[in-house]
Amino acid sequence: MEDLYKEVILDHYKAPRNKRAIAAPTCSSHGNNPLCGDEITVYVNVEGGTVAEAAFDGQGCSISQASASMMTEAAVGRSVDEVHGLAKEFRSMMAGESDPSEEALGDLIALQGVVRYPVRIKCAVLAWDTLEQALQQGEASSAAPH
């Protein structure tokens, strides 16, 4: 099983999904992990409370890039609230606090083995933290009077 998970991570690293900038995103955010040198910008288009499009750009280790690729796939088509819930569940798995099912997390379950390498956990959650920052900024700007 662990070999299969490694293959999934390598596949997302070598052929990342949604690795591109979005020209006019609803919201975006930039994050970095100075310990590893990972840098990522997450772009999101939210339409009617649903993530219609998610993409990322940047560079970093295989874990950060694979996590970002999987995250963009998992976020599209979900409500913003569902994405916040998914991020919470992912962080809980990375903290070793839960043992989620593959049904709940899909390909993201492949990153569960990262828990054994505490220094790499920040690499795996960087994209999620950046996504949450982007969504929070998007929510704040849409709530602000125009």
Structure characteristics:
alpha+beta, Sufe protein. Chain: A, three-stranded antiparallel β-sheet, 5 helices
Summarize the structure in words.
With 146 residues, this protein is α+β, with helices and mostly antiparallel strands. The protein has one domain (2-138): Sufe protein. Chain: A (Alpha-Beta Complex), CATH 3.90.1010.10. Helix content is 49%, strand content 18%. The protein has five helices and three strands. It has helices at residues 2-14, 62-75, 80-94, 102-105, 118-143, and strands at residues 27-33, 38-47, 50-59. It has a three-stranded antiparallel β-sheet, with helices on one face. The longest helix has 26 residues, at 118-143. It is globular. The model has no long low-confidence stretch (mean pLDDT 93).
Question: Which helices and strands, and how do they pair?
Answer:
Layout: H1 2-14, E1 27-33, E2 38-47, E3 50-59, H2 62-75, H3 80-94, H4 102-105, H5 118-143
Antiparallel strand pairs: 1-2, 2-3
Number of strands: 3
Instruction: State the name of the first-level CATH class.
Output: Alpha Beta
Structural class per helix/strand content?
Answer: alpha+beta
Shape: globular
Poorly predicted sequence stretches spanning 5 or more consecutive residues = none
Number of separate structural domains:
1
